[in-house]
Amino acid sequence: MNDMLARHLDWFAGLSPATLAQIDRVYAADASFRDPFHHLRGRTAIQEVYARMFRTLTQPRFVIGEVVQQGNTAFVNWDFCFALHGRQLQIHGGTLLRLDDAGLIREHRDYWDAAEGVYEQLPLLGWLLRCLKRRMA
Fold first, then answer.
1. What's the rounded Cα separation, in Å, for the pair 84 and 88?
2. What is the bridge-based pairing of β-strands 105-112 and 73-84?
3. Could you report the per-residue pLDDT of 74-127, keeping only the tens digit for each?
4. Cα 26 to Cα 102: distance, rounded to the nearest angstrom
5. Per-residue pLDDT for 57 more than 60?
6. What's the number of domains the chain is made of?
7. What is the pTM of this model?
8. Which of 86, 94, 108, 121 has fewest C-beta within 10 Å?
């Protein structure tokens, strides 16, 4: 893993409201960000997603797992741990990162199961989704 990618992953692992101000050291100004709920462009929009995460969740943190890198492209497995309404939750996922020539993230694409990670945690909808999953299995 190259030094720039290692620094970016350290930033994600230690992300906090205070370190969010250093986003310009991690993302290119016109970076794209995509996950099951967002499709954004620009560092400011990405920063707002993380800021909202800190406003709505308790103790959110990323635990970085396996990293596979080839050139300026990397795939990172992670666990996102947080509390919501007093419940401890964890989402397992992966991120495709593409770095620009300066080593900044120009493309960030998250892959994770929104049904399992979010919707199944809701009382009525979660019950319905778990039933559907069992029937389809």
1. 7
2. unpaired
3. 999 999 999 887 888 888 999 999 999 999 999 999 998 765 545 455 555 555
4. 10
5. yes
6. 1
7. 0.82
8. 86
- Tell me the residue type at 45: A
Residue keyed to tokens 């960030």 = 108
Q: For tokens 């770095």, what's the residue?
A: 99
Residue 79 one-letter amino acid? D
* 91/35 Cα distance (integer angstroms): 13
Distance CA 36, CA 34 (A): 7
Range of the domain at 37: 3-136
Domain of 10, CATH number, reads 3.10.450.50
Contact 61, 88 (CB under 8 A): no
Length of the chain: 137
